[in-house]
Design brief:
Elements (H helix, E strand, L loop, with lengths): L1 H28 L10 E6 L4 H16 L9 E6 L4 H11 L6 E5 L1 H10 L6 E5 L23 E5 L4 H11 L5 E6 L4 H17 L2 E6 L6 H10 L5 E3 L3 H5 L1 H11 L3 E3 L11 E5 L1 H16 L10 E2 L3 E6 L14 H6 L2 E4 L2 E4 L14 E7 L4 H16 L8 E7 L7 H9 L5 E5 L1 H10 L5 E6 L18 E5 L4 H11 L5 E7 L3 H16 L3 E7 L5 H9 L5 E4 L3 H5 L1 H10 L4 E3 L11 E5 L1 H16 L10 E2 L3 E5 L1 H7 L5 H8 L1
Helix pairs in contact: 2-10, 3-4, 5-6, 7-9, 12-20, 13-14, 17-19
Length: about 650
């Protein structure tokens, strides 16, 4: 018995010692200049998706503008539940255990889980990017905005749902039915749905509803709404559905109907228009509120208020292929803050972002795989975007450029060279460069673009949980749309061939997705792997000998370096060649279903600017920007004796 007590006592002592070591270690991290303790802040969101990311960006920018610089006089730790409620509850308990001075939440579900875990007020709680905090069950009174828990305050932003439906009716006067997928477990979504029912009744629009309880069920729900005859699909502020917005867009495209939302900037993901709230502005004011409390303001004396800065975004490219006569009024285009067309994304909000301080020259190193058209277009978007933000080459920006001459083995030395130089930022383009930067770069922050899938490239587990010194923009190609085009060009197709470098993570991921999709369509995908561009011509010959009916090339860097050789084999064997890079369609491809790389470069410019101005890449989620483009080569079609379907020609022309 005595021995047992001694062992228990020893265990208690060891736990106490370990806790003391951890406390001392954390205390050291939480001391700033002169040994002064700095506040520890948790920033919590329910999922990684653009609406929430935009709000969080505003919060971080406002904190920085108010003088709270992460790692200098504040420590900010980010958390995302990735749309999983049990994870959200675990995070809520962790950030309200007394360790954190403040918790800032973005999204209704994050607000609710943290508020419920923090009823004793162990941490100050500031919330934003929330639809209706008054009906969320957290003790906030609608009648008296000062009647709320003493440690809890924030901003609500109830989006004017009626404006979204009025805009849709203006674009298509014959609109009589709209489909809505939503999760009834989300109080914000329930609030939006109640308003939508009232608005649709007044406008004599049938609101067709389909309930979902997880993002995995969104595609099935959206398909069912299309099958029931919905003329458009509407997406509210429902996080479950927004996480799977691509599924809603895919179902709508199949039914040739549009998607509209109250969650800008969803046009980047395929919606026709977004009529909602500027959540960056909401995030900014939430950040300013948090800063005032960190300086000593009493949250009990601050009212909870509603803030609804309007934001409209339109996507002119989404009009292509719609079965009904939808039109975007010119006056709406002129007042929209974001406009997406074939030339790229025009974003008026850029002018309000922070500019570089006068007199300073920032140094950037750019590393890419090899010169090719897509990379050049992405670079143009990148440097045009930086110039709009005040970072102009030759004035406030000094840029050094290096490429790997198409050889993966050359990349690490290029990155190490910049990492050891006096650089403020390294920008990587292409997946091999990103993969190498995650492991090679040790001293400098990294922003990436011209990448299909950063997660597959090894840059992180999710868009918010990623390598600490890295952030950037991914752009996954429209694989399902590519297969649709192949099947339209070759009715009854049974076998398609592809070649790629299996050492490229982007190619492995895209081919794995395509392999499954081709199989579902009853098409066999023949594959040939290469290790370098010198092998591409022979690999194309091998592929052509396998009784295939078409060749498909994704954005494999190795294959693109020898694209002319592939095009020659395809033409000699009279095989249609379809690829995912529009810039190559004039070099022998029959058709391209790909991405516009200029918008991806523009989006990366914003992230690069924020890092240059002092933000920690760890706090900047990866973004997804994938603007679909269709291009056709009529000269190749003539040589192959192929006639393009009228629908494809119409889509390519828009």
């Amino acid at each position: 018995m005595r021995a047992t007590i001694q062992r228990l006592a020893l265990g208690v002592v060891l736990i106490a010692l370990c806790s003391g070591v951890l406390l001392i270690s954390d205390w050291g991290q939480r001391k700033g200049v002169g040994g002064k303790r700095i506040p520890l802040v948790a920033l919590v969101q329910h999922a990684s998706q653009p609406l929430l990311d935009e709000g969080v960006s505003g919060m971080l920018d406002a904190l920085a503008a108010e003088g709270f610089i992460d790692g200098r006089n504040i420590r900010i730790q980010r958390f995302s539940a990735e749309n999983d409620l049990p994870t959200a509850n675990t995070i809520a308990r962790q950030v309200t255990n007394g360790e954190y001075d403040m918790v800032i939440t973005a999204s209704t579900l994050s607000m609710q889980t943290v508020a419920n875990a923090n009823k004793e007020g162990r941490a100050m709680h500031v919330f934003g990017v929330v639809a209706d905090p008054f009906s969320a069950g957290i003790g906030v009174s609608r009648e008296n905005p000062l009647d709320h828990p003493r440690h809890l305050v924030g901003l609500g932003s109830m989006v004017p749902v009626d404006k979204a439906f009025q805009t849709a009716r203006a674009m298509f006067p014959g609109l009589k039915s709209v489909g809505l997928a939503w999760n009834s477990a989300e109080s914000n979504s329930e609030a939006f749905t109640r308003v939508a029912r009232r608005v649709c009744k007044e406008m004599e629009i049938e609101l067709m509803e389909a309930n979902v309880d997880s993002s995995s069920g969104v595609l099935e729900a959206a398909n069912s709404l299309v099958a029931r005859g919905a003329q458009a699909l509407w997406v509210s502020g429902d996080i479950t559905v927004l996480v799977a917005l691509e599924s809603v867009v895919a179902a709508a495209r199949k039914g040739r109907i549009p998607v509209f939302t109250i969650a800008p900037p969803s046009i980047r993901r395929g919606s026709l228009f977004d009529s909602g709230v500027n959540f960056y502005d909401v995030g900014e004011q939430t950040g300013e509120l948090a800063a005032s409390i960190l300086r000593g303001a009493d949250p009990a004396k601050i009212p909870v208020r509603n803030l609804v800065p309007e934001k409209v975004a339109v996507n002119l490219t989404a009009l292509a292929g719609l079965k009904d006569n939808w039109r975007i009024p010119q006056d709406l285009v002129e007042r929209a803050e974001m406009v997406l067309d074939e030339k790229g994304l025009r974003d008026k909000t850029v002018a309000r972002l922070r500019k570089p301080p006068p007199g300073r020259i920032f140094k950037v190193g750019l590393v890419y795989f090899a010169p090719e058209p897509g990379a050049e277009i992405c670079m143009k978007g990148l440097f045009d975007g930086l110039r709009e933000l005040g970072f102009e080459e030759g004035k406030t920006l000094e840029v050094k450029r290096s490429h790997a001459q198409g050889e993966i083995a050359n990349i690490p030395s290029l990155l190490q060279n910049y990492d050891n130089q006096d650089m403020d930022l390294i920008i990587t383009m292409t997946t091999p460069c990103l993969t190498s930067a995650c492991n090679t770069v040790k001293r400098k922050p990294v922003v990436f673009t011209y990448v299909y899938d950063p997660i597959a490239a090894g840059a992180g587990k999710t868009r918010t949980s990623h390598v600490a010194h890295v952030t950037g923009v991914g752009s996954f190609p429209p694989v399902a749309d590519t297969i649709d085009v192949i099947q339209q060009l070759i009715p009854g197709v049974k076998s398609v061939g592809t070649l790629y470098n299996s050492s490229e993570a982007n190619s492995r991921k895209v081919v794995s997705v395509a392999r499954e999709l081709f199989t579902r369509r009853g098409v066999k995908l023949e594959e040939v792997s290469v290790t370098g561009s010198s092998e591409v011509a022979q690999a194309a010959q091998v592929l052509a000998s396998r009784n295939i009916q078409a060749i498909w090339i994704t954005g494999d860097n190795t294959a693109l370096q020898a694209f002319d050789a592939i095009a020659k084999v395809a033409l000699d064997r009279r095989l249609p060649l379809v690829n995912n890079d529009p810039e190559f369609v004039d070099r022998g491809a029959l058709a391209c279903v790909g991405l516009g790389w200029y918008p991806a470069g523009q989006a990366a410019a914003k992230l690069a600017a924020r890092v240059l101005l002092g933000q920690n890449p760890q706090n900047l989620p990866f973004e997804e920007v994938a603007v679909k483009q269709l291009a056709l080569n009529h000269e190749v079609a003539r040589k192959l004796g192929i006639t393009f379907p009228a629908g494809l020609v119409q889509q390519a022309a828009q």
